[in-house]
Design a protein that fits this description.
Distance between the termini: 22 Å
CATH architecture: 3-Layer(aba) Sandwich
CATH topology: Rossmann fold
Number of strands: 4
Structural class: alpha/beta
Number of domains: 1
Oligomer: single chain
CATH class: Alpha Beta
Strand order of the largest sheet: 2-1-3-4
Order of helices and strands: HEHEHEHEHHH
Helix content: 25-40%
Radius of gyration: 18 Å
Shape: globular
Strand content: 5-15%
Length: about 250
């Protein structure tokens, strides 16, 4: 169910135990061959498929296309909300719907740079409402929900999401092939270890010259459809757990 299609009275009649999902993504550089809107296009398709599966049991807000993309600002076309600004925007969205009385609020993320401020947001908002025992505040990135896509599609080479990589290029090929430039001559840019297990602060130009990270030259339409199926199924399973939550317990 799409929030944008509802009137205010229609939303007011909905059970406050209905999950509200806020899709969040980005508009930023995606290498030499993918559109700036890649993350938002992909997250939007995941939402479309999940919405079709869940019907009127879940409300999906319009996708927020502006993300935290400061690390990509050396590349033309990137638009970004700085980390603190972005965190405040996300916090405001949660507070809006807490004010409206809703209790199960989920960010569905489609951009890696949103991960840290998104998790901080749900932490901070939960502390502000610490007297409540009926709030469920979640931040979930669609490719990190547990499934290993290569087990479903053995031709996948990458074992994690990169950037404008085999996975993203395959999904855009499936969704909007007319937006994909020549990728067959590109070469792999490895993820690198970034001083693991420590977490390093980084900017994109430190890791890649052409803008991609991973192996876009390995992409295919078939891989893209397999990835969409796996990721949208994961999102549906998560939201089914949110629907089943008893409203009080720690476990989902």
């Amino acid at each position: 169910m799409q929030l944008a299609d509802l009137s205010s009275p229609a939303l007011a009649r909905i059970s406050r135990d209905t999950p509200i999902v806020f899709p969040v993504a980005a508009l930023e550089q995606h290498g030499q061959h993918l559109p700036l809107f890649t993350d938002s296009l992909l997250c939007g398709e995941i939402v479309r498929r999940a919405d079709a599966a869940l019907g009127d049991r879940v409300v999906f807000a319009p996708l927020l296309w502006l993300g935290n993309s400061d690390h990509h600002l050396d590349f033309a076309g990137t638009l970004s909300a700085p980390p603190r600004t972005y965190l405040d925007v996300l916090g405001g969205l949660l507070e809006n719907f807490i004010t409206h009385g809703f209790k199960r609020l989920v960010f569905l993320n489609g951009h890696g740079g949103n991960d840290v401020p998104g998790k901080q947001t749900v932490f901070e908002v939960r502390q502000r409402h610490r007297q409540r025992d009926d709030l469920l505040l979640l931040f979930a990135t669609y490719w990190n929900l547990g499934t290993k896509p290569w087990e479903t599609e053995p031709s996948l080479v990458q074992r994690e999401m990169g950037h404008a990589c085999e996975w993203e290029t395959s999904m855009i090929l499936r969704l909007a092939p007319h937006l994909v430039g020549d990728f067959t001559g590109l070469t792999t840019v490895e993820q690198g270890n970034a001083f693991q297990p420590a977490t390093r602060g980084w900017i994109t130009r430190e890791r890649t010259g052409p803008g991609h990270i991973g192996s876009p030259q390995l992409a295919s339409v078939e891989k893209g459809e397999a990835l969409f199926r796996v990721f949208s199924d994961d999102v549906v399973r998560l939201l089914e757990r949110v629907l089943r939550w008893n409203g009080k317990s720690w476990e989902g």
